[in-house]
Amino acid sequence: MDELTIYLDVLYDGLEGWVYSPVKTATSWEQHWYEWPSEKLRLQSHITQTSGDVYISPAVYKDKRAVKDSIKRVQTVWVDFDGLEKIDFKNIDVPTLLVQTSYDTKVHCYWRVEPANQANIEDVNRRLTYHLDADNGGWDSTQLLRPPGTINHKNGLPVKLVATDPKPHTLDYFSVIPKVTTPPAEYVTVEKVIPVGQVLSNHSLPLQLIRMVKKETPVEPYRSSFLARLANELAEEDLSHLEIVSLLKEVDGRIKKYDGRQDQLIRLSQLADYAIHKHLAEESVLIYTPSQILNHVESLEWILPGWLHTTGQLVLSSAPGVGKTQLTFQLAYCLTTQRRFLGLLAPTKKRVFYFSLEMDKSSLKYILEHQKNEWEEVPEFQIIDESYNLKKYEDLIFEHHPEVVIVDSMIELFDDENDNPNSEARRVMKWCRKVRRRYGVAIVLIHHNRKATEGNKKPKSLADLAGSYMFAKDSDTVLQLWKDLKGFELSGVKVRFGMEEAWIIHRNNNLWFTREANVSNESRTTKPDQTRNIPFKDPGFRFGN
Length: 545
Fold this sequence. Notes:
CATH superfamily of the largest domain: P-loop containing nucleotide triphosphate hydrolases
Largest sheet: 9 strands, mixed
Distance between the termini: 43 Å
CATH topology of the largest domain: Rossmann fold
Structural class: alpha+beta
Strand content: 15-25%
Number of helices: 14
CATH class of the largest domain: Alpha Beta
Shape: elongated
Number of domains: 3
CATH architecture of the largest domain: 3-Layer(aba) Sandwich
């Protein structure tokens, strides 16, 4: 039995009604209907011999109208993996059919079930899509899919059946999949679409998103993932469902993924729906097994081993005037020139952007004039010394592509007009998380400790960070700098990926710090000037493989 016959029998065997198989030509869509099962041979001939891109609907219709109200029965559930490199079916059986639609990472998966109405099928499709991280534009019951035996003319590749499994399923089998808690989106109509200028004027979007909306034009096979990524980013900026669809429609008119199709707004509505659900679900509890973490979570890439990874967050805190700015300028130098910083060495040179929000250029010049006496080469990290808003900072990060952002100090990111420090702390930490994820940067935040009191004359613990607990909660590493008669003590009061240790460090006349030794190492014999490049002792902890 040839692959097309197998495919059609799984979709329609035992059903009666109209099968919809439209063709997309260079200029339009052609409508084609075939009565099943009496016109099965004509349908097969149409699929294999028609020029253009041939599609098919898995549903059988009562009449020749490709709308939900006309659907009679459907007996498969499906998902569309549009470019996912590794497919994991998790706790779900392998599909009855697996159809490769072009590249080997673009496949449609079908599970044969008992005949059901469109609402029940669509519910399972939707839950499968969320559960398996499939393409979020493919669960609708009127979906058009590519049958095997045709050519995907966008890239000239054949559509082929690559795997089958005869095991039957029931809809009840899929009840183990978690339900999607948000209600299905109301599909947008042309009359509801908001002009792009109006949407953009209602929101202060980062420059990156504005460019995605107005300029970027990805090519196949990246158009679907581009639209999905844009929808996710817009949802994170708290745009409404209608606003997201309106901007996606503008973009789709340029990149031509769904443009010209009758179901364009349905597909874009599904993308917006999925993105909003994903955004709202961020606070839900995710459960993993050790095997899932070991097999599917990428290993951390270190900048400062044990302290800071490529999308991590480090807080350096102390009382005012101790030397945090001097120490982080030294850090910026060491990262951009790949020199050791207190014994720790970055694997490669890093691009650093320093937000000096407390000191102006004259104050910074004083530090640099001293520290340059320790330089072995002139560093090229970038500095700003004026305060802006979070959107402007994000735009600067987007424009200059740093790998590490140092903020001096974190409190300057707060909105002075907001009298609620806890809400400001949440807002700033949310922004830091977004920037780290969106731009793939690590963030170093300078912060201040609580003032000393009669009951706490040495505020240098994790609990002594001024302000909200959110600062420590969201950071991988918190370092405290404390000045006393012995010099400076640098202690790791929170080190998620290493050991909570403390060191004595010294500052010379060039405002340059060197690490002496571990505070608890009473038997040390090494002199301070011999330990400037002490190698970091790897704690041995690794995420993933």
